[in-house]
Amino acid sequence: MAVSIKVAGIKQTLNNVEKEYTEIINSLQRAAVIAAVSELKLTTPVDTGRARGSWAFNKTGAKQDAGVSAVIEAGILGPIPNNKIETLYITNGTPYIKDLNAGSSIQAPPRFVEKTLSRYFKVTSNSIRYS
After folding, report:
1. 2 lies in a domain?
2. Which of 62, 65, 72, 131 stands the most exposed, by the fewest C-beta atoms within 10 Å?
3. Which of 28, 82, 33 lies closest to 58 in space, CA to CA?
4. pTM value?
5. What is the Cα–Cα distance from 81 to 24, expressed in whole angstroms?
């Protein structure tokens, strides 16, 4: 003897839970990105301050350079989406950030970028790119 139960509205309830879950993930991700960028700014070696001031985050991966344009603020990301997990990029547009990260300054250890980011995210060989 089989028992069958039909629950009305379960599909909508599950969709609502998925949207809420996605929004929570995106909120936590944004908080981690803001914290990571703040820490990168503190750990970046300073001569003129250009490299330190060029850390930014956005949805496109467009690089910011403090010598050229202003740092992107968190508000420019818009409302937190609940329909998909968003991808955020942390960038630094100074042409010598790779050299600084390789240890060209005695003010910061080599690979300070990876060390900082690994506190907030899983860092892989594809995570950090120079171009």
Report:
1. no
2. 131
3. 33
4. 0.83
5. 9
